[in-house]
Amino acid sequence: MMTTTQPIHLPAFRLTLKDYVEYSLDFLPRHYSRPASWLMFTPVPTVLGVIGAFKINNHNLMAELTLLALLMLAAFFIMAFVTITICLVCSLLNFRNMPNAKHDAHIQLSDEDLAVDLNHQEARFRWIGIHTVVTTRHLILAYVTPAAAVIIPKRIFATATDQEAFITRMQRLWQENRPI
């Protein structure tokens, strides 16, 4: 039988641009760690490879194939870098219009769920539905989908002890309730 403990109500806070940048830098590697997410970068290198294949002559076949492979690889990584950079910049430019930047967030941690109240709109995330709980240097992130997280800045805690107790309880509740 599981004992019920008192909910933890965090102090109200607003996200800063620095918080959002740190979240974005945690999210991007998670998103692009899935092999399928890299498929969108393949068309340009493929087109270069096809065009290059028609331009190859038989005199220096090995050198030209090596150069073509390097060109395709470089194009792949340049496309990835440009796309990721554009996504990050657009996201950061949009930050000022996000409710998290305009309104105070109120978060409550209970044995049943993680509740977020933002601008008088409440969302409750049951522990079984939370994908992962991560801590970064300045944030606690509860990923409610693979692409979105509840962002909790560590700066809102009065002491390091309060912060550690919150993180420990949050991770324990997530571990106990996540699907196997």
Total number of helices: 5
Query: Helix fraction?
Result: 40-55%
Q: What is the fourth-level CATH superfamily of the largest domain?
A: Pleckstrin-homology domain (PH domain)/Phosphotyrosine-binding domain (PTB)
Rounded Rg: 23 Å
The H-and-E topology, N to C, reads as EHHHHEEEEEEH
CATH architecture of the largest domain: Roll
Distance between the termini: 20 Å
Bulk shape: elongated
Total beta strands: 7
Residue stretches low in confidence (pLDDT < 50, at least 5 long) are none
- Give the class from helix and strand content and strand pairing: alpha+beta
Q: What is the subunit organization of this protein?
A: single chain
Q: Going across the major beta sheet, what is the strand order?
A: 1-2-3-4
Instruction: From the 3D structure, determine the CATH topology of the largest domain.
Output: PH-domain like
Report mean pLDDT, rounded to a whole number: 85
Query: How much beta, percentage-wise?
Result: 15-25%
Number of domains: 2
Task: Identify the CATH class of the largest domain.
Answer: Mainly Beta
How would a crystallographer describe the biggest sheet? 4 strands, antiparallel
Overview features:
180 residues; alpha+beta; elongated; three-stranded antiparallel β-sheet; four-stranded antiparallel β-sheet; 7 strands; PH-domain like; 2 domains; single chain
Descriptive notes:
The chain folds into two domains: 84 residues, Pleckstrin-homology domain (PH domain)/Phosphotyrosine-binding domain (PTB) (PH-domain like, Roll); 68 residues, no CATH class. It has five helices and seven strands, in the order E-H-H-H-H-E-E-E-E-E-E-H. Strands 1-2-3-4 form a four-stranded antiparallel beta sheet, with no helix packed on it. A three-stranded antiparallel beta sheet has the order 5-6-7, with helices on both faces. A hairpin with a 3-residue loop joins strand 2 and strand 3. Helix 1 runs antiparallel to helix 3. It is elongated, with a radius of gyration of 23 Å. It starts with 7 loop residues before the first strand and ends with a helix. The mean pLDDT is 85.
